[in-house]
UniProtKB/TrEMBL annotation:
<dbReference type="InterPro" id="IPR004561">
    <property type="entry name" value="IsoChor_synthase"/>
</dbReference>
<dbReference type="GO" id="GO:0008909">
    <property type="term" value="F:isochorismate synthase activity"/>
</dbReference>
<dbReference type="GO" id="GO:0009697">
    <property type="term" value="P:salicylic acid biosynthetic process"/>
</dbReference>
<dbReference type="InterPro" id="IPR015890">
    <property type="entry name" value="Chorismate_C"/>
</dbReference>
<dbReference type="InterPro" id="IPR005801">
    <property type="entry name" value="ADC_synthase"/>
</dbReference>
<protein>
    <recommendedName>
        <fullName>isochorismate synthase</fullName>
        <ecNumber>5.4.4.2</ecNumber>
    </recommendedName>
</protein>
<feature type="domain" description="Chorismate-utilising enzyme C-terminal">
    <location>
        <begin position="122"/>
        <end position="381"/>
    </location>
</feature>
<keyword id="KW-0413">Isomerase</keyword>
<comment type="similarity">
    <text>Belongs to the isochorismate synthase family.</text>
</comment>
<dbReference type="Pfam" id="PF00425">
    <property type="entry name" value="Chorismate_bind"/>
</dbReference>
Amino acid sequence: MSPAVLVRPRPVHRGADLLAAYLPGSFYYTSAHGSLLADGVHACVEADGGDRARAAAAALAAAVRAGHDDPVVVGAIGFRQDGPASLVVPAVVRRACAPAGDGPTAPAAVPAWTVVPRPEPARYADAVRRALELIDGAELDKVVLGRCLDLLSGSPVAVPALLARLVRADPAAHAFAVDVSAPGDPAPRTLVGASPELLVSRRGTEVVANPLAGSAPRVADEARDRGRRAALLASAKDRAEHAHVAAEVARVLGRFCRELHVPAEPTVIGTPTMWHLSTRITGRIADPATSALALAEALHPTPAVCGVPVDRARDAIADLEPLDRGYFTGLVGWTDRHGDGEWVVTIRCAEVCDAAVRLFAGAGIVAGSDPDAELAETGAKFRTLLRALGARER
């Protein structure tokens, strides 16, 4: 008897159709590999002990036994281990190729936004200085500090239009929209964004991670923009920061992979607003029972969003950041019943609730960081969502 052939679902829709079909409450995710739109709830994934990969595997197995022909776990997990999570096995899943970036989309409206930074820029710069004191005292090698912008409009934000603008502005990004409503919310809450950073993917035996660390804002002038890209690639400070992150990601994946390839030198990738140092790490999984979500949980949080050493950096973040991160710098993605899936770092994101929007951005602080430059970097990272909203930081 010939061995069974594993057949996975193939896209049967157009990417543009799935994007157009998205409504708040659905789960939407797209990357270069394709799009996924999920609706309804077949089962919620609960993991009181924190092992969400194990809980997800159990939920998927139960869905198969119940006759679900294409069960997938989708959702988001917060930054902290004890933080929020929104993971479900949806009732209906539709797949498609990735939508193109040149399709028509309505321009961003320009409502009268009220914009409140949290903390104030001067206080964020002070927090960077305090972080540098910890680094100078050898308590930390790196810590990532985030800040927020709270935006309020006179009318509810149209999340589908916002998502469409994010997808078409940067087709190479991992765009997502996840319902993260919590008790007490005055209206449904949606986590929406376009992350440039792949935490990890698994397809069959192939594993890919693409950590980013070391960034520079882009500018409109082409010659100056090329200069910024070259300066980033040559920056000893940024390369040292990036090396921390790539080495840690490689170390963790090495526990699960029988083969691992780590490029000796980083490259530079670009988004419409930023240049980033990038290392694409590839490997072959040793145990097929290790799912994409299990790999993501093992990697999270990487030094790209937390720091080095992780525990001390996490404590410093709790002390220096005035607001809880919630889902910011967590992970968003999906895992199927075969263990395949894709999870990205939750950056270039916002939470939308009726007419209120909270944007997030952060910067990695290492020896040699300049508080004003780190403040400017977070401002540049806000532009992804600000442009899609038709707003600007004051």
